[in-house]
Amino acid sequence: MDKLFQIFKVDALEAAKIAAQPDEPHNHDFEELLIGVKGELEHFIDFDSITIQAPFISFITKGKMHRVIPKPVMGICDLWAIRFKSEFIPETTFQLYSLYHNQANLKLENDYCFQRLVTLCEMIHDETQQDDPNFGIIRQILSVIFTMIEVERKKEIPESEALNKTQNTTFKNFLTILEENYHRPLGVEFYAEKLFMSSRNLNMICQNIMEQSVSEIIETRKLIEAKNLLLSTNKTVSEIAFELGYNEGSYFSKVFKKKSGQSPGDFREEIQNALIS
Predict the structure, then answer these.
(1) Which of 41, 102, 135, 148 is the most exposed place for a label (fewest CB within 10 A)?
(2) By C-alpha distance, which of 47, 93, 40 is closest to 67?
(3) DSSP letters of 174-215?
(4) Within 10 Å of residue 182's Cβ, how many Cβ atoms?
(5) Are 42 and 79 in contact (CB under 8 A)?
């Protein structure tokens, strides 16, 4: 996906097209939120396949192997699909990883709260149709949507089950500490000590949940914020590097290019051109 944010609807006609050519399990470089209003979804994720009827939400994190096939019920399919890059809401994305890594799908009640979710999707869609969409407004509405979903998720899933043992609790605590410190030049040992555990055990937990080492997760969080700053500020690459705890701008640029496939300057230019077009 070459856009920072995208929202669209899947109706019965589009569902038929997808069903006629079901793709193989795959992953992608963006986050995806599906909100099912009518119909059902056949979802293969985490090496398991389930079918969930609307109303539902499904959140697929970047890099997760999955396959979705929307299906009409009584001839009707109505599904909102929201796709966005991690840097679109950098302060929220990692928290979503911890909440949804082992619970991608959530069945909801067709009540007032769900109808408000649908209304918020319509508001976002209306904003994207403007000649000059305000992405600040879209960010705020999207954050509200995730907050409302989390409230409903806690109602549907007992906290003890949602946390799913000590590992998830530790991982969530790690992300909280990371959010406060990712801009500092700190290593794995700092986070392990904060959590009163060994670096080895923290790495094991991160590998189990995210299939990444602690160092990789730290660098990923820095990269998300770097992209956010490149998009939302006029700061130079050197200033951003310093703000994120890199002693040398050249090393930051090298890490950025290795992880994203392009230099910070090229990334800024590409996304700015995409937003204009």
Answers:
(1) 102
(2) 47
(3) HHHHHHHHTTS---HHHHHHHTTS-HHHHHHHHHHHHSS-HH
(4) 21
(5) no
Locate 68 and state its tokens: 């979705």
DSSP class of residue 47?
T
Alpha-carbon gap, residue 258 to 248, rounded angstroms: 16
Burial class (CB in 10 A: 0-12, 13-18, 19+), 147: exposed
Could you tell me the sign of the dihedral formed by the alpha carbons of 84, 123, 103, 151, in that order? positive
pLDDT in tens, 42-94: 988 866 788 999 999 999 988 788 888 999 999 999 999 999 998 898 878 77
User: Is residue 190 classed exposed, middle or buried when 0-12, 13-18 and 19+ CB atoms within 10 A define those classes?
Assistant: middle
pTM: 0.77
**Residues 35 and 118 sit within 8 Å (Cβ to Cβ):** yes
Strand 78-84 relative to strand 48-53: parallel, antiparallel, unpaired? unpaired
What pLDDT does residue 270 have?
A: 84
Question: CB 79: neighbour CB atoms within 10 A?
Answer: 24
Looking at residue 24, what DSSP letter applies? Answer: P
Contacts by residues 205-209 (CB-CB < 8 Å, ≥ 24 positions apart): 205/167, 205/170, 205/171, 205/174, 206/171, 206/174, 208/167, 209/98, 209/101, 209/102, 209/167, 209/168, 209/171
Name the nearest CA neighbour of 43 among 55, 35, 32, 51: 51
Q: How many whole angstroms separate alpha carbon 106 and alpha carbon 115?
A: 15
CA distance 70 to 12: 9
